Amino acid sequence: MVKRRIAEILRSGQPDESILIQGWVRTKRELKGFAFIEVNDGSSLASLQVVMNQNLPDYEAIIKKLNTGASLEVTGVLVPSQGKGQRIELKAEMVEVYGEADPETYPLQKKRHSYEFLRTIGHLRSRTNSFGAVFRVRNACAAAIHQFFQERGFLWVHTPIITASDCEGAGELFNVTGLNLKDIPRTENNAVDYAQDFFGRPTYLTVSGQLEAEVMAMAFSNVYTFGPTFRAENSNTSRHLAEFWMVEPEMAFCDLDGDMDLAEAFLKHVFKYVLETCPEDMEFFNQRIDDTVLATADNIINNEFQRLTYTEAISLLEKADVKFEYPVSWGLDLQSEHERYLAEQLFKKPVIVSDYPAKIKAFYMRLSDDEKTVRAMDILAPKIGEIIGGSQREERLDVLEKRIIAQGMQPEDLWWYLDLRRYGTVPHAGFGLGFERLVQFMTGMANIRDVIPFPRTPQSADF
Ligand code: ATP
Ligand code: MN
């Protein structure tokens, strides 16, 4: 007997085919002499309707076991469905129950549960329609990302999760240590004696793979990272996780315009791919989560992103007739409310803001001739705010050294990074995309905790 996935049966299954499916019961409806069981195997939002006739061996005993959440295997024949809502259904010939789910205690009942409640049952929530759709779309986003870069000849590079550089300036770091916290070795000055630690020095969980990606770009021209990053920032927001995934392309022989072009083509590709591969899930988000999801996807795919400089953005914000909580003034960083105003209200599409004040941006961003701004760009998305942050990197050794010192860091600590400018330096650029922010943007899910299977946030690392 051929085992089939339900998504594929619903798409192309033909009457009279004999098949075998395996999955979990979503609902059971008992009628006189027969029963309908909705079976889902995670391959699609829609479940397959299984019809069980009372003539089946052990009908009564089996039906009693088939409550929501139970696992089963069905062998049968596909038949055209009499009811509406599905084209085809499975007429059961043999049903085997793998595991029952006690309806008295199984937390997922047919009614709608809040996302807050579902977070408390993180081990079961993926069996719901919403989370099924989210994680299929998340998978499609990841596949689209690899496809985009692989088609363009970018090398996927694996950068370390444990890092010794604490100077990337991207956020608060988690320490990684092998020391016994109950008996910490001390130096004469009573500082922690990291010489006795596993790596013989302080180490951290990475906040970004960019510096290492630059190393690899200087050998392979175009590379990208796609892996987990960590920030110990105590920001309990709907857009911040302590552990999240980041995508970071890095291109040699590329300036900021090339970087913006790539970022825009990249977002368009990912949206197109997801719409094509997960149309039902996207329709579901549009109906149930946020009725602008499909229009937004369309907007991204079919419109050029609005490009403007930070200086222009500031003057537009100063003219805006909205009351912002945070001040707007040249030299201050844009807050989420400002970013959302630009993308949501003013331009109503993604906006690329470039050329930020050097003082508020990282040391590695290329200083412009005005010596006040750097060649940085952020892509601001409606509803989410910053989704991509990128820059052309400073490729001039002397300028980079000065910037490192100006930001209170030691050039010696970055000797290998500076070597890239000593030997065969080239203009280069890249960006970082928060993967969960992308999935949020794509699905309309309001809380970032609901687009990663096992969220890590302050005071919460269950499951
Ligand atoms: P924000 O101002 O929103 O905190 P950031 O300036 O700290 O962002 P970057 O350091 O530029 O962000 O990181 C690159 C990308 O990673 C961001 O554009 C964003 O999409 C994502 N990102 C940053 N911090 C987080 C986080 N804590 N959780 C999830 N995604 C994040
Ligand atoms: Mn941050």
Explain this structure to me?
This protein is of the alpha+beta class and 463 residues long. Helices cover 31% and strands 24% of the residues. The chain has 13 helices and 16 strands. The strands form three sheets. It has an eight-stranded mixed β-sheet. The protein has a five-stranded mixed β-barrel with strand order 1-2-3-5-4. The protein has a three-stranded antiparallel β-sheet with strand order 7-9-8, with no helix packed on it. A hairpin with a 7-residue loop joins strand 4 (71-80) and strand 5 (88-99). Helix 4 packs across helix 6. The protein is elongated, with a radius of gyration of 27 Å. It starts with 5 loop residues before the first helix and ends in a 20-residue tail after the last helix.
Largest sheet: 8 strands, mixed
Give the overall average pLDDT.
95
Strand count: 16
Order of helices and strands: HEEEHEEHHEEEEHEEHHHEHHEEEHHEH
Give the count of helical stretches.
13
Subunit structure: Homodimer.
Enzyme class: ligase
Catalytic activity: tRNA(Asn) + L-asparagine + ATP = L-asparaginyl-tRNA(Asn) + AMP + diphosphate + H(+)
GO molecular function: asparagine-tRNA ligase activity
Fold topology:
Elements: H1 6-12, E1 18-31, E2 34-40, E3 48-53, H2 59-65, E4 71-80, E5 88-99, H3 115-119, H4 129-151, E6 155-156, E7 162-163, E8 175-176, E9 203-205, H5 210-220, E10 222-230, E11 243-252, H6 256-277, H7 279-288, H8 293-302, E12 306-309, H9 310-319, H10 336-346, E13 351-357, E14 373-381, E15 385-392, H11 397-406, H12 415-422, E16 428-434, H13 435-443
Parallel strand pairs: 3-5, 6-10, 12-13
Antiparallel strand pairs: 1-2, 1-4, 2-3, 4-5, 7-9, 8-9, 10-11, 11-16, 13-14, 14-15, 15-16
Helix pairs in contact: 4-6, 4-7, 4-13, 6-8
The structure holds adenosine-5'-triphosphate and manganese (II) ion.
